[in-house]
């Protein structure tokens, strides 16, 4: 492979007076490279090579001018490794095979005055290959040390694992640092060049993303004045436009804002502008890292309401948006039973008198929730997880949208309100939450802080600050939606926390489900958890713990976050069709302990969500994958799924309509298909026994006897006792087998196969007086005259069936 052309790969500032230039390959000449700054820039005061140690601290290795290679870990970053055996592993030594081999063990040493674990070799060439070789560090206990995703040489393999890469042309001799005679103005466009070549943007580095302000942001109307504040750290000029008539925006009053020391732009107008409309025009440097357009109206990210996805924002007095406390107590996590639902899906075909406008949003849904026939109340769930209600990028009020393309994190969706121009959605959503609370149902909101929709207003405020990009300024796209929010920027984190706090304080919501939470990162999620628990100690926090980049459920074990359990979902889909393993069944029924969930409510168990096909369309025997007309076995398997789901340790979640075999006609992605997503409540009358079976299981789980299924802390080792049929996944499970939680025991048997079977129980299990409370069709009433199956040592379980028994002593 020919060597790369020698040029500047990228350049960044570490402070306004200090920066780094990275060349495309190592610079081996004795003289420093002829790098120049663009016009009007201050002169270099120093220009030197970056010390090898600093490159190695980020990259895991460096090669010095003698050709020696050094791999190391700084103990200041990994203090837990002090005294532990750590090995170098990679493509060059069989990865796992390196563990325990003395020749690959790192040794305690000092580099540049810092304590490190070090491995070195006299000749770096042995680690050069085509393709380039990868490596990682691993302990003697087979714990692989995570590679920071933002390491300069981090690469992902096909399985999503992140490794370090050894690049023979970029070994540490390609980095140079400089200082300047005067600080650079971040609102200007700066460049650097090599050999008078193509100028390369000089962008702000990590210090920039730490810029922070404590100032209250947004349009703050109170008393006799309105204060406007916008954080825009690279803006050259910010103009405010306000008007009281949307039909005369061209006559809007405009004002230039003043820049404060904390990078906030501010102006105070001597009038309370409640109900007026406003937007910003932001001017700044334009290059690969800036998308400033002084003619493009920008919706304030802190706008409390918006007319539509384009804006403008609506100014609201703080007193007007305040709400009384409704006194609702959020259920304990281990008592939760969640239904995921969409505002319009619930209201569109609700069997109650609503206008077409009401059926599109909050007001109509509130009336349906208040109705004595409200579906979710009869089903018995105590929490609803609403798909996004933040302002999103549907083009018209009538256009259906799931809502996962957010335009503003404070304003509720304008098309869900009866009169967006008057910000009626604020009061309507407050009323909706209160309606749910009066029915004993907590409200969780699906929030999307991993990317934004179109138009991307934050990009017009500062593309570099708010979005993940590569060294060429190309947007990262691990969300699959065109951009990834840079949640680790200080004011992006504040925006997230402030907007969530707003949902709690202004609307009274009980918790959140984070879409593609992996993209925010564990550290940011920890900060969010700590901040929100100061506002609402019992806030419910649920992560979708993956993205196209990776999966972090295991990394969230030591946090207060629960996670959607995709492993559970996939297993149960297979299990009811005769697949899966005994070990998998035991693991998931017990709540995915330890690896996924350190505490019981850390796993959200589910088998259907808004994504992909519905449950019935996935498991149907119909050859076209359309479960609209399910077979008898489809229905039986759905009952088995419900039984296992509600009998599993963790938080159970169903998709609205799953209890009446909701079908989307086999269509996989329905994010714009309101016609397929709207709940057809008539199916309750078509499949009344299935709906009743779900409702009865929920009622049982929330009953006194259901305490055997709801756990605040991990049960004892002997709590569960499993029995399996020979050569089968058919199982019988005893709950509270060791009587560690009182005298009551429960027996749950399930046969997901097409053959009848007998499961052998031990003598200790069958002792006592057992009463059957449910089978695969229904729950028995206390006075039921039906014949109930006894518990015997040879327990007979028919095909595609299950049973539940209780023993009181």
What can you tell me about this protein's structure?
With 809 residues, the chain is of the alpha+beta class. It has 19 helices and 41 strands. Strands 25-26-29-30-31-32-33-34 form an eight-stranded parallel barrel. Strand 30 (511-514), helix 11 (522-535) and strand 31 form a beta-alpha-beta unit. Helix 6 runs parallel beside helix 8 (424-438), helix 10 (490-507) packs parallel to helix 11 (522-535) and helix 15 (632-647) runs parallel beside helix 18. The longest helix is centred in the middle third of the chain and has 18 residues, at 490-507. It is globular, with a radius of gyration of 30 Å. The model has no long low-confidence stretch (mean pLDDT 95).
Topology overview:
Layout: E1 8-15, E2 18-23, E3 35-37, E4 44-49, H1 52-59, E5 61-63, E6 69-74, E7 86-90, E8 107-111, E9 114-121, E10 134-139, E11 154-156, E12 162-165, E13 175-180, E14 191-194, E15 200-204, H2 206-209, E16 218-222, E17 225-231, E18 237-243, E19 253-256, E20 258-259, E21 264-269, E22 277-287, E23 290-298, E24 313-314, H3 318-321, E25 338-341, H4 343-348, H5 356-359, H6 362-370, H7 375-379, E26 383-386, E27 390-392, E28 406-412, H8 424-438, E29 442-447, H9 457-466, H10 490-507, E30 511-514, H11 522-535, E31 540-543, E32 562-564, H12 566-575, H13 582-589, E33 603-605, H14 615-619, H15 632-647, E34 651-655, H16 674-677, H17 683-686, H18 688-701, E35 720-724, E36 731-735, E37 745-751, E38 757-760, H19 763-766, E39 770-775, E40 794-797, E41 801-807
Parallel strand pairs: 1-15, 25-26, 25-34, 26-29, 29-30, 30-31, 31-32, 32-33, 33-34
Antiparallel strand pairs: 1-2, 2-13, 3-14, 4-13, 5-6, 6-9, 7-10, 8-9, 10-12, 11-12, 14-15, 16-17, 17-21, 18-19, 18-22, 20-21, 22-23, 22-24, 27-28, 35-36, 36-37, 37-41, 38-40, 39-41
Helix pairs in contact: 6-8, 10-11, 15-18
């Amino acid at each position: 492979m020919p060597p790369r052309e020698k040029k500047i790969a990228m350049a960044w500032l570490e402070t306004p007076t200090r920066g780094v230039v990275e060349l495309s390959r190592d610079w081996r000449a004795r003289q420093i490279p002829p790098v120049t700054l663009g016009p009007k820039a201050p002169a270099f005061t120093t220009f030197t090579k970056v010390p090898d140690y600093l490159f190695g601290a980020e990259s895991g290795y460096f090669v010095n001018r003698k050709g020696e290679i050094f791999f190391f870990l700084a103990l200041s970053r990994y203090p837990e490794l002090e005294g532990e055996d750590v090995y170098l592993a990679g493509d060059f030594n069989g990865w796992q095979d390196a563990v325990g081999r003395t020749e690959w063990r790192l040794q305690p040493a000092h580099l540049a005055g810092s304590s490190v674990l070090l491995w070195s070799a006299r000749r770096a060439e042995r680690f050069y290959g085509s393709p380039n070789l990868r490596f990682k560090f691993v302990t003697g206990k087979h714990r692989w040390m995570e590679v920071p995703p933002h390491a300069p040489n981090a690469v992902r393999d096909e399985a999503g694992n992140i490794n370090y890469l050894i690049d023979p042309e970029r070994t540490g001799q390609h980095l140079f640092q400089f200082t300047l005679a005067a600080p650079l103005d971040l609102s200007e466009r700066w460049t650097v060049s090599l050999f008078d070549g193509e100028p390369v943007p000089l962008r702000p580095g990590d210090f920039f993303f730490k810029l922070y302000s404590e100032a209250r942001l947004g349009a703050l109307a109170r008393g006799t004045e309105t204060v406007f504040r916008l954080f825009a750290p690279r803006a050259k000029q910010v103009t405010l436009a306000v008007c009281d008539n949307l039909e005369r925006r061209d006559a809007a009053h405009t004002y230039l804002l003043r820049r404060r020391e904390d990078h906030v732009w501010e102006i105070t107008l001597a009038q309370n502008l409640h109900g007026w409309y406003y937007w910003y025009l932001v001017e700044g440097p334009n290059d690969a890292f800036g998308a400033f357009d002084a003619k493009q109206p920008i919706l304030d990210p802190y706008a409390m309401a918006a007319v539509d996805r384009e804006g403008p924002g609506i100014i609201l007095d703080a007193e007007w948006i305040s709400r009384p406390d409704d006194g609702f107590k959020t259920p304990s996590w281990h008592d939760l039973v969640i239904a995921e639902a969409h505002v319009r899906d619930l209201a569109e075909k609700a069997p109650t008198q609503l206008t077409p406008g009401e059926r599109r949003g909050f007001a109509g849904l509130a009336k349906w929730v208040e109705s004595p026939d409200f579906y979710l109340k009869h089903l018995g769930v105590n929490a609803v997880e609403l798909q996004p209600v933040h302002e999103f990028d549907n083009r018209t009020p009538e256009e259906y949208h799931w809502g996962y393309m957010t335009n503003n994190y404070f304003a509720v969706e304008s098309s869900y309100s009866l009169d967006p121009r008057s910000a009626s959605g604020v009061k309507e959503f407050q009323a909706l939450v209160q309606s749910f609370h009066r029915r004993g149902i907590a409200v969780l909101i699906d929030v999307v802080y991993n990317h934004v929709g179109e138009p991307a207003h934050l990009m017009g405020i500062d593309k570099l600050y708010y979005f993940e990009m590569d060294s060429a300024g190309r947007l990262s796209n691990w969300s699959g939606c065109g951009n990834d929010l840079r949640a680790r920027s200080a004011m992006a984190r504040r925006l997230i926390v402030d907007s969530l706090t707003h949902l709690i304080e202004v609307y009274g919501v009980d918790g959140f489900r984070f879409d593609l939470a992996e993209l925010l990162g564990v550290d940011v999620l920890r900060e969010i958890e700590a901040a929100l628990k100061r506002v609402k100690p019992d806030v419910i926090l649920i992560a979708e713990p993956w993205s196209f980049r990776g999966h972090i459920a295991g990394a969230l074990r030591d946090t207060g976050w629960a996670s959607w359990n995709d492993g559970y979902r996939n297993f149960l889909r297979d299990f009811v069709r005769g697949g899966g393993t005994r070990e998998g069944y035991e693991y998931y029924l017990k709540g995915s302990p330890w690896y996924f969930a350190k505490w019981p409510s850390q796993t959200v168990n589910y088998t259907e969500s808004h994504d992909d096909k519905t449950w019935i369309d996935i498991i149907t025997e119909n050859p076209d994958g359309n479960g609209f007309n399910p077979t008898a076995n489809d229905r039986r398997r759905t009952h088995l799924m419900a039984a296992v789901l509600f009998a599993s340790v963790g938080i159970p979640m169903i998709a609205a309509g799953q209890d009446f075999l909701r079908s989307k006609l086999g269509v996989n992605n329905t994010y714009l298909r309101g016609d397929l997503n709207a709940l057809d409540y008539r199916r309750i009358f078509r499949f009344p026994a299935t709906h009743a079976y779900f409702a009865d299981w929920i009622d049982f789980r929330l009953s006194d006897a259901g305490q055997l299924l709801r756990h605040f802390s991990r049960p004892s080792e002997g709590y569960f006792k499993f029995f399996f049929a020979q050569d089968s996944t058919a199982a019988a499970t005893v709950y509270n087998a060791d009587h560690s939680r009182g005298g009551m025991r429960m027996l749950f048997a399930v046969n997901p196969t097409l053959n009848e079977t007998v499961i052998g129980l031990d003598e200790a299990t069958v002792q006592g007086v057992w009463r059957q409370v449910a089978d695969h069709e229904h729950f028995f009433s206390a006075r039921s005259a039906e014949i109930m199956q006894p518990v015997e040592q040879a327990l007979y379980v028919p095909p595609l069936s299950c049973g539940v028994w209780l023993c009181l002593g």
